[in-house]
Amino acid sequence: MLGPVILAASRSDRMRRLVSAAPVTKQVVDRFIPGESVDDIVPIIEELTGRGLELTMDVVGEDITTPEQATAARDAYLALVERLKDLGLGERVEMSVKLSMFGQALDGGHELALANVRPVVEAAAAIGTTVTLDAEDHTTLDSMFAIHEELRREFPQTGCVIQAYLFRTEADARRLAEAGSRVRLVKGAYKEPAEVAYQQKHEIDKAYVRILRTLMEGEGYPMVGSHDPRLISIAQELARRAGRKLDEYEFQMLYGIRSDEHLRLAAEGHRMRVYTAYGTDWYGYFMRRLAEKPANLRFFARSMVSKG
């Protein structure tokens, strides 16, 4: 399986240098990460919202090593909030954050991450939008869920992400499927050991459907993070059986992947949110996109052969 190999490469400085130096890399990365700054991304936001789509914005960057970097990450999100306020698009564009970027892995990281993310959540609420806490590797999840619970006391609209490949997630979904909750379900994109996670695609898919049924039958707001046509159809059927209206759940897909499907679902009346990343620290995000979907890796390899 190539996925685990690519995920290991995402942590390799040598591979980072090799991929970054490839002449075709920028062309391919731009497919998934359409800008490095807020100014770069504003036209993308305007274009996608103008086509009936909603967005969740991710400022890429995870492996920070100092509190100053965590503060800079906070400030980058606050700058994004200011631009969304100027655009009047607070209700159409939310934000996704990785707590590792806010200092979670540093000494005193739980408290540091909470202190850094809270101003972002406050600023988002002030312009009518929300923040979703992204899930990372399994060792970080207890901290993430504790911060999520703390933030929801004051900002109940704060969302979180759960990953179908982890054994723990079915129990997490039952706990989270309560009134007012916002939960994004994804398959999972980190290299996890067999002791904590399913390793085979068919096992992950089955778990995804079980967890999605729990969310659809619950009282919260499910966010279906998948590009898989079969899972999208199953989600629609589970929503129908649960008596959900089209505005009582949403689909989420990555920028640059199945863009025609984004527009098709939106045209059918579904809430369709495009997960759009930007920033200079793109390497880890890019490599996980390759690991998640073999077609992405083939696209990159073909580009390197034809352009390199």
Q: Could you give a short description of this structure?
A:
With 308 residues, the chain is of the alpha/beta class.
What does this structure look like?
By secondary structure, this protein is an alpha/beta fold. Helix content is 53%, strand content 14%. The chain contains 13 helices and eight strands. The chain has helices at residues 2-9, 13-21, 25-32, 38-50, 67-87, 109-126, 141-154, 169-176, 201-217, 229-241, 259-267, 283-292, 294-307; strands at 54-59, 93-97, 131-133, 159-163, 182-186, 221-225, 250-254, 271-278. It has an eight-stranded parallel β-barrel with strand order 1-2-3-4-5-6-7-8, surrounded by seven helices. α8 (169-176) runs parallel beside α9. The model is unreliable at 303-308 (pLDDT under 50).
